[in-house]
Design goal:
The complex is a heterotrimer of chains A (352), B (382) and C (78). Chain B has 382 residues and is an alpha/beta fold. Helix content of chain B is 37%, strand content 16%. In chain B, helix 1 runs parallel beside helix 11 and helix 6 packs across helix 12. Chain C is an alpha+beta fold. Chain C has one domain: Roll (SH3 type barrels), CATH 2.30.30. Classes of the chains: A alpha+beta (352), B alpha/beta (382), C alpha+beta (78).
Chain lengths: 352, 382, 78
C-alpha cells in the first residue's frame, strides 16, 4: 500500500482563514510558505528554503542599490490593483528611480488573524504576476501573524536590490537651472481610485489606479540619451507631483516653474477632485515618474517616453530655474501665477 | 481637455486677459481700490488661479472672515473634542476642522490619535447613517459653516426628529454672513477714523444662493458700500472686481449681482423656511479674531432640544483667548495685513497656526504665506 | 460660501435624492432643498446637497457678455 504523500492535508484556500499557527514557525507556517508563497513566487533561491538568499555579485564597476517600502494601504483591493502588486511596483520603482536595474525583492507579511486565505492567495498571485512582469524575483521573505484587531488585514513590506552601472548618478540634488521637467503621464489616478472606495466619499467613476512597474520605461529612457543628461528621476507617490517637485527643489537648491496647461490630468480625475475639494497636484500616483533632464535631450527623451506603454501620455511640464528660495511656481491655465507649496500634512476633502 | 459644463467656461484664460486689460484701463491710476472678498471660497479661487497677478498694483484684495473654520473659536473645537474623549461619543465632522489646533495641544486629528472616535464625513446625512448603524453609541455632528451649509444641517435635525432617533445630536456652530459684514463696517477702527478702509465688497457666491441679494442692500445704503455678488469661478471674481471699480469711479453704492445664473433677490425660500423652523438666533456668539458678535449665529430651537448636543450633554462654553500678539482681529477687519503681525511666518505658520487667519488655507495669513511671499523675490529664468 | 459646483441631474431617486453627473463622475446627492429639480437640470451641489438650480439661460447670457468683451478688446494687454 502506498504511503499517502506527505500526510498533509492541503490548505483550504476557499474557506480557510489565517490563524495564530500560521505565524508560529511550525508545520502550519511551513505549509503556508510552501503551498502559497513559494509556489507563487517560484525561483531557485526561494526553493532552497534557507534563512537567506545567496545572490550573485554585480558585474565589475556596478554598485548595489537598495530600497524599501512598507505598504499599509486600505482597502486592500482597489480598482486597478491591490496591496500585493502595489508592494512590488513601489519598491521596483524606487530602485529604478536611482537609474538602477531592479533584480531581487524580499517580502515581509504581517497578517491579521482571521484574514481569509482566498483573499491572501489573490494578493500573493497578484504579487507574483507583478514580479514576473517586472523581471524581478522575490527571493526571500517572512510571515508573522498578529491577533485580530491589531492589523488591517495585511501589511506588506518589500525591500529591493538592483545594480547601478558605473559612473551613473541620478539623484534629487542633480537638477540645474535650464533643465527641463517631464512627467510620464496623467496624474492623480491612484489617489482618486482609492478615495472613491472610502465610505462616505462614495462616487462612481471609471478611474482606476495607475499602479505599474516603471523599470522598463526608465531603462528605455536612459538608453536613449547620453549618460548624465538625465539628472533626476522620481515617482510622485504620497503627496503627489507637487510634493515631489518641492523635494527636488529643496535638494538641488533651485526653483521650478510649471505650466499648468501642460500638466496632463484625465477629465474624470479633475471632476472627482473638484467634487472633493482636492488638488490633483497633491494626489498620489503609483505608476508615473518625473524626469528632469538637460534641455538638449528633452525632445528625444519625451519622444522615447511616448513610445513606451507606460509613458504614452508623457508631457513637458516645466523648467528648472535659479531660485535661492527654492519655490515651485506655476503659470495657471487662467494666466495667473501661483506658488505650488508644500502641503501641511495629508490633503483632506474640504467643504470650504 | 476638461469637460465640466458651466465650470470650465468660467475659467477661460483668454477672457481673463481681456478682463485684466479692462480692469487696468478703468482703474484710475491716481487712486487705490481696496476690496474685501468676504468668502473663503473666493480667497481660494484667487490664490488657486493666481488672479492677483493679473490685477494692477492699485487694486488690492483684502481677505475677509468668510471662512467658517478660521472664525470657529477654540472653545467650540474643545467642546467637540470633549464629546469624543470625555463622553465617548462618535463625533462626525467635515475634513476642514480636523487639523485646527485647540486647547491642550490637541486637534480633532490628535484627539483621534488618543482614541477619540472622530470621523470625517462629506455630508451631515452621513452622520445620521452612522447614528442608525450604531444604536448603542451617542453620535454628534459638529455643524460649522455659513448659510450655505446650514440647511443641510436643518434637514438632518428634522429627519432625526421624524425618526425619533435616540442617539443623535448636533453641536451647532452655524454663523451668519450679514452680521459679520456689519461687524467689520462698525469696527473700532472705523469709529475712530470715521471711515472704512474698504471701497467695496465682493459678496459671497453660495451664501447668496440661499439668502438672496436683498440682505446686502442695507450695507450699500447705510454704509455707502458697493457690493457685487460674484460667482465662484475666477472670471466671475474678475468681472465683479471690474463692476466694483466702476461703482467706485461713478460714486455709486449699490448691490449688484454678477452671479445671475444662481442668485436672485430672494434666495432659496424653501431652504430659508426650513432653517427658520429648526434654528433661532443666538443673542451673541464668539467669533475667533472678532470677539463677541451680536445676532451672528444660530442655535437649535427648544422644539428640537433632544437633538441639541449643548442641551443633551449640558455643555458649558469656555472661551479661550488667542495669543496676545496675534493680529487676526485687525487682519480680519481689513485694517492690517498679514506681514504686519509680529507672529506671521516666525512663530505662526501653516504647520503651527496661532490664530484664525492661519488656521485654514483660505485665511488671509495662510493665503499670503502660500502664494504671497514669492512676489517679493526676483526669479531669474536660466 | 465655498466648494459648491454645478452638476447635471442624471436621474431622480426616491427619498428626495438624485444622481448627478459632473464631468463624467457620478454621485448620489439630496435634492430636498431643490425639490423642483428635474432630469437634465443643473444644480449647485454643496456637502452632498443641491442648494439651488443653475439658470442655464442666465449662464449663457453671462458667457455671451464675456465673449463680447473678449471680441471688443484690441491688441494684447500691456
Amino acid at each position: 500500500m502506498a504511503i499517502k504523500k506527505d500526510y498533509l492535508r492541503p490548505i483550504d484556500f476557499k474557506t480557510g482563514r489565517i490563524d495564530m499557527n500560521h505565524g508560529a514557525g511550525g508545520r502550519a507556517a511551513a505549509q503556508l510558505i510552501e503551498e502559497l508563497f513559494a509556489r507563487a513566487f517560484e525561483n531557485p533561491a526561494l526553493r532552497e528554503s534557507n534563512d537567506g538568499a545567496v545572490l550573485p555579485a554585480p558585474p565589475p564597476g556596478h554598485r548595489l542599490v537598495m530600497a524599501t517600502d512598507a505598504h499599509v494601504i486600505s482597502p486592500l483591493f482597489f480598482p486597478g490593483g491591490d496591496i500585493g502588486c502595489l508592494s512590488v511596483h513601489g519598491t521596483v520603482n524606487d530602485v529604478a528611480m536611482m537609474g538602477a536595474q531592479p533584480l531581487y525583492l524580499a517580502a515581509s507579511f504581517i497578517l491579521e488573524e482571521g484574514y481569509p486565505l482566498a483573499d491572501l492567495k489573490r494578493l500573493v498571485d497578484s504579487m507574483a504576476a507583478a514580479a514576473r512582469e517586472a523581471g524581478v524575483a522575490i527571493v526571500t521573505g517572512d510571515t508573522k501573524v498578529v491577533e485580530q484587531g491589531k492589523g488591517d488585514g495585511v501589511f506588506i513590506s518589500t525591500t529591493g536590490v538592483g545594480w547601478l552601472p558605473p559612473g551613473r548618478r541620478i539623484a534629487g540634488d542633480q537638477a540645474r537651472p535650464g533643465d527641463v521637467v517631464l512627467v510620464s503621464g496623467t496624474i492623480g489616478e491612484h489617489g482618486v481610485a482609492v478615495l472613491s472606495l472610502r465610505e462616505s466619499l462614495e462616487f462612481e467613476t471609471a478611474i482606476t489606479s495607475d499602479t505599474a512597474a516603471l523599470n522598463g520605461l526608465t531603462a528605455t529612457m536612459l538608453a536613449a540619451v547620453p549618460e548624465g543628461s538625465v539628472r533626476v528621476l522620481r515617482d510622485p507617490t504620497r503627496g503627489g507631483l507637487a510634493t515631489t517637485l518641492n523635494e527636488i527643489t529643496r535638494q538641488s537648491g533651485v526653483g521650478i516653474t510649471l505650466d499648468e496647461a501642460a500638466i496632463p490630468v484625465l477629465p474624470q480625475v479633475e471632476a472627482a477632485c473638484e467634487l472633493l475639494g482636492l488638488d490633483p497636484l497633491y494626489v498620489a500616483n503609483e505608476g508615473k515618474l518625473v524626469a528632469i533632464c538637460a534641455p538638449e535631450v528633452a525632445d528625444t527623451l519625451l519622444a522615447t517616453m511616448r513610445e513606451h506603454p507606460n509613458g504614452h501620455a508623457a508631457a513637458r511640464i516645466g523648467v528648472v530655474t535659479e531660485d535661492p528660495h527654492r519655490f515651485v511656481q506655476m503659470t495657471t491655465r487662467f494666466g495667473g501665477r501661483r506658488v505650488v507649496d508644500w502641503l501641511s500634512g495629508e490633503q483632506l476633502p474640504r467643504i470650504c | 481637455m476638461s469637460t465640466m459644463k458651466y465650470i470650465d467656461e468660467f475659467r477661460d484664460g483668454e477672457i481673463a486677459k481681456a478682463l485684466a486689460t479692462k480692469i487696468r484701463a478703468e482703474a484710475q491710476p491716481d487712486r487705490r481700490y481696496h476690496f474685501m472678498e468676504f468668502c473663503g471660497g473666493h480667497t481660494h479661487a484667487l490664490s488657486r488661479y493666481g488672479v492677483p497677478a493679473l490685477l494692477p498694483d492699485n487694486v488690492q484684495m483684502v481677505h475677509g472672515p468668510g471662512c467658517p473654520v478660521c472664525v470657529l473659536p477654540i472653545g467650540r473645537t474643545d467642546q467637540a473634542i470633549g464629546l469624543a474623549l470625555d463622553h465617548g461619543a462618535i463625533v462626525c465632522t467635515y475634513g476642514d476642522t480636523m487639523r485646527v489646533p485647540a486647547s491642550g495641544s490637541l486637534s480633532m486629528q490628535r484627539a483621534k490619535a488618543r482614541g477619540a472616535d472622530i470621523r470625517m464625513v462629506y455630508s451631515p446625512a452621513d452622520a445620521l447613517k452612522i447614528a442608525r448603524a450604531n444604536p448603542s453609541r451617542e453620535v454628534v455632528f459638529f455643524a460649522i459653516g455659513f448659510e450655505t451649509t446650514t440647511p443641510p444641517t436643518a434637514l438632518v435635525i428634522r429627519q432625526a426628529a421624524k425618526e425619533n432617533l435616540p442617539n443623535f445630536s448636533v453641536l451647532c456652530c452655524h454663523v451668519l454672513t450679514p452680521s459679520a459684514i456689519t461687524h467689520i463696517l462698525e469696527s473700532p477702527e472705523v469709529k475712530q477714523w470715521g471711515t472704512v478702509p474698504l471701497d467695496g465688497f465682493v459678496g459671497p457666491a453660495h451664501v447668496s444662493i440661499l439668502i438672496g441679494s436683498a440682505p446686502y442692500e442695507g450695507f450699500a445704503r447705510d454704509y455707502r458700500q458697493p457690493v457685487v455678488i460674484a460667482g465662484f469661478e475666477p472670471l466671475d471674481v474678475m468681472q465683479a472686481i471690474l463692476m466694483l471699480i466702476r461703482q467706485v469711479n461713478e460714486g455709486r453704492h449699490e448691490v449688484e449681482n454678477e452671479f445671475t445664473r444662481a442668485v436672485n433677490r430672494d434666495g432659496n425660500l424653501a431652504a430659508q423656511k426650513l432653517v427658520a423652523e429648526v434654528f433661532e438666533l443666538r443673542e451673541s456668539f464668539e467669533w475667533r479674531g472678532l470677539g463677541e458678535v451680536a445676532h451672528s449665529a444660530l442655535r437649535i430651537r427648544p422644539a428640537f432640544a433632544q437633538w441639541d448636543a449643548e442641551q443633551r450633554f449640558d455643555l458649558a462654553y469656555r472661551p479661550v483667548p488667542d495669543h496676545k500678539q496675534c493680529d487676526c482681529g485687525a487682519i480680519l477687519r481689513g485694517v492690517k495685513r498679514p506681514a504686519d503681525c509680529k507672529l506671521f511666518a516666525t512663530v505662526c505658520t501653516p504647520e503651527n497656526p496661532m490664530g484664525s487667519c492661519m488656521v485654514s488655507s483660505e485665511g488671509a495669513c495662510a493665503a499670503h504665506y502660500s502664494y504671497g511671499r514669492w512676489k517679493d523675490i526676483a526669479i531669474v529664468a536660466a | 460660501m465655498c466648494l459648491a459646483l454645478p452638476a447635471r441631474v442624471a436621474a431622480l431617486l426616491p427619498d428626495e435624492m438624485a444622481t448627478v453627473d459632473l464631468g463624467g463622475v457620478r454621485k448620489d446627492i439630496s435634492i430636498a432643498l431643490t425639490p423642483e429639480a428635474q432630469v437634465g437640470d443643473y444644480v449647485i451641489v454643496h456637502v452632498g446637497h443641491a442648494i439651488g438650480l443653475l439658470d442655464t439661460e442666465e449662464a449663457e447670457r453671462t458667457l455671451a457678455l464675456f465673449a463680447e468683451l473678449n471680441a471688443s478688446q484690441e491688441a494684447p494687454a500691456p
